[in-house]
Specification:
The complex is a heterotrimer of chains A (105), B (259) and C (151). With 105 residues, chain A is mostly beta strands. Helices cover 0% and strands 47% of the residues of chain A. In chain A, the strands form 2 sheets. Chain A has a 4-stranded antiparallel sheet, with no helix packed on it. A 3-stranded antiparallel sheet of chain A has the order 1-2-5, with no helix packed on it. Chain B has a single domain, classed as Orthogonal Bundle (Cytochrome Bc1 Complex, Chain D, domain 2). Chain B is mainly α and 259 residues long. The termini of chain B are far apart. Chain C is α+β, with helices and mostly antiparallel strands and 151 residues long. Chain C contains 2 helices and 9 strands; from the N terminus they run ααβββββββββ. Chains in contact: A-B, A-C, B-C. Chains B and C meet through α2 and α10 of B and β3 of C.
Chain lengths: 105, 259, 151
């Protein structure tokens, strides 16, 4: 499952930096039907979390009310250079993760 | 009098495509993004938030992956796509003399796969084909569409043009009636666009995923309650050639965001 | 409904607005007695203010609409936003999302893209570290596609 993380090329110590993430996922609502009328089973990313050097800095509980290929921008304050790790799980139990290095000046 | 007629004929023959009667003048062309609200227009120009870029990123990975019996990757022949693929999407659909048929970008990618990689062609609208075509098309962002309709391409162009003006479906509508005669006007709450192809493959909100121009044409057929021709039907290719000619000069925005 | 239950319900209805509007003139854009909301607030009062929710007034397509929310908060260990919840008036799933923040967030500002089942009001409900709840809202008109697409 593809995902992208964008952080500033260089972050300032102790200052909030924007983190932008996007995950390739249909966020299937469960309310759609296929071409022969059968309901398409619901499958959304129900939880995603972001850890900075192992410490959780952001968490989101999502539902079908979040658009397909979910995009979220949030802020976090880095104290030192490290690695941001994004992980998620969907209704079918499929997990995904993506990491991005953060450089702090 | 005879001299003037001969001069006019000579001029017509020399200018090629521009000598074709254009119902939509070149200076009135408008991209699909001109008909989007501010939110979606902003989304298209945001390379992280634009979901279409997820497919471009996958395409970039696939570019270097070895495939088929030849064990070759696209990169093995084409090296850096940013250099070698720049401008390529702008001249498709194109009549391929070596292969003796009209090809769009997807068809050309599959021809490469079969002939040079010894691999199975990607299925229509498959995630793989969408990813690679989005990646290749994105290398031509900002470049104007410019296709050839002369020689062996001419019968395809004529067939495409005839299809564009032919009424079809329960609603008995031709493409031209919405996109040429009534663009800019409202259909329910939507403003009709000119139906230009310069953004494809595009992330269409209605599909909640990336899709090809062919899929968009199928969507139009279902919109006028006409039978959707199967993927790969030659009518789509002919129409794509006509649409590209009609869009000449419009800058490529692939992968765009559309409603 | 039994007489006792009716009187209790009427009494709490009379009390509720007074609790919610005790310190602020603005009326919270959300019904504190709504069961979906109560599962989050556990009956705590909700005040209007501090939460700004931005949505485009007109959405091209309900499948994906830009949403931006921000909450006034120093985001210190002593005083920060614990979570922001999104509620829909019309969607089949009314509790759309919950974003969990903390002092490490630095700013209580979130942007995302949401799905809307038609024109409606969306409410952002912020839970503070001191246990208080604040709400803001925004309305969107959602247009439907003109043509049926079975591609």
């Amino acid at each position: 499952m593809a995902a992208r993380i964008q952080v500033p090329p260089q972050a300032k110590r102790g200052e909030p930096m924007p983190v932008r993430i996007i995950i390739q996922h249909p966020m299937e609502t469960g309310y759609r039907h296929d071409e022969v009328g059968h309901p398409i089973k619901r499958n959304v990313i129900r939880e995603l979390s972001c850890r900075y050097d192992g410490v959780e800095v952001f968490r989101a509980d999502l539902s079908s009310g979040i658009a397909a290929n979910p995009y979220i921008q949030f802020y976090t304050v880095p104290e030192a250079s490290g690695v941001l790790e994004l992980s998620w799980i969907d209704d079918e139990g499929v997990r995904g993760s993506e990491r991005a290095p953060v450089v702090v000046a | 009098m005879r001299l003037r007629a001969a001069a006019a004929l000579a001029l017509a023959l020399c200018t090629g495509a521009s000598a074709q009667e254009r119902a939509l003048p070149l200076d009135r062309l408008k991209s699909g993004s001109d008909f989007l609200g501010a939110d979606l227009r902003a989304l298209q120009s945001d390379d992280i938030a634009n979901p279409a870029m997820l497919w471009v990123e996958r395409g970039a990975k696939m570019w270097s992956e070895r495939a088929g019996s030849a064990g070759r990757s696209c990169a093995d022949c084409h090296q850096d796509a940013a250099k070698t693929m720049r401008g390529v999407a702008a001249w498709y659909p194109k009549y391929d003399a070596a292969r003796g048929r009209l090809l769009n970008l997807e068809g050309r990618i599959n021809a490469c796969r079969v002939e040079h990689q010894g691999a199975q062609p990607f299925k229509h609208e498959s995630e793989e084909l969408l990813s690679i075509s989005a990646y290749v098309a994105s290398q031509s962002r900002g470049l104007p569409i410019h296709v050839g309709i002369d020689g062996p391409a001419r019968p395809h162009f004529e067939a495409g043009r005839a299809a564009y003006y032919r009424r079809r479906g329960q609603m008995n509508l031709a493409c031209a009636q919405c996109h040429e005669e009534n663009w800019g006007k409202r259909l329910f709450a939507e403003t009709l666009s000119q139906g230009q192809p310069n953004g494809y493959p595009a992330y269409r909100m209605e599909w909640q995923t990336l899709g090809s121009e062919e899929r968009r044409l199928r969507a139009c057929l279902s919109g006028v309650r006409a039978e959707m021709l199967p993927y790969g039907a030659p009518e789509y290719l002919d129409l794509e050639l006509f649409l590209a000619w009609r869009a000449q000069g419009l800058k490529i925005e692939s992968p765009a965001v559309r409603r | 409904m039994k007489r006792r239950e009716f009187i209790a319900a009427a009494a709490s209805l009379a009390l509720a607005p007074r609790l919610a509007g005790a310190e602020d003139n603005a009326i919270a854009p959300i019904d504190p007695k709504d069961p979906d909301v109560q599962s989050v607030t556990k009956g705590a009062p909700i005040r209007a203010g501090r939460v700004k929710l931005e949505l485009p007034p007109l959405a091209d397509n309900g499948n994906s609409v830009a949403m931006k929310l921000s909450v006034e908060s120093p985001m210190t260990a002593q005083d920060h936003v614990r979570a922001v919840h999104l509620f829909s008036e019309r969607n089949p799933v009314r509790h759309m999302a919950a974003f969990h923040l903390g002092p490490k967030s630095g700013r209580a500002e979130i942007a995302s893209r949401i799905r809307l089942a038609g024109s409606q009001k969306i409410i952002a409900l912020a839970e503070m570290s001191d246990g208080s709840f604040w709400a803001g809202s925004a309305s969107v008109v959602v247009t439907l596609s003109a043509c049926l697409d079975e591609s």
